[in-house]
Amino acid sequence: MNDTPNPTTPPDHLAIDPASPHFDRSALERGVGIRFKGVERTDVEEYSVSQGWIKVALGKKVDRHGRPLTIKLTGPVEAFFHDRAGEPAETGDNESHEG
What we know:
The protein is mainly beta and 99 residues long. Helix content is 6%, strand content 38%. The strands form 2 sheets. A 4-stranded antiparallel β-sheet has the order 1-4-5-6, with no helix packed on it. The chain has a 3-stranded antiparallel β-sheet with strand order 3-2-7.
């Protein structure tokens, strides 16, 4: 259902809730990263790049259906894939953490 003309670009609108119409399992499995106002965020529940907003969980509070309560934050949003189409993710350091 999602038409992705460029597989190296994440969807414009994505949600992690399987009940959402913007849920895309294949994109989430690749690992989507979000930069909001220049800072990488790991707590994003849903985002829209074109509309310039993200939704983040409001602490540990949940609604009556057990889904996290979210707050909508507006600002510049950048989405990117961590793996870059099968390649390992870039990291800031060159250390190997094998054990």
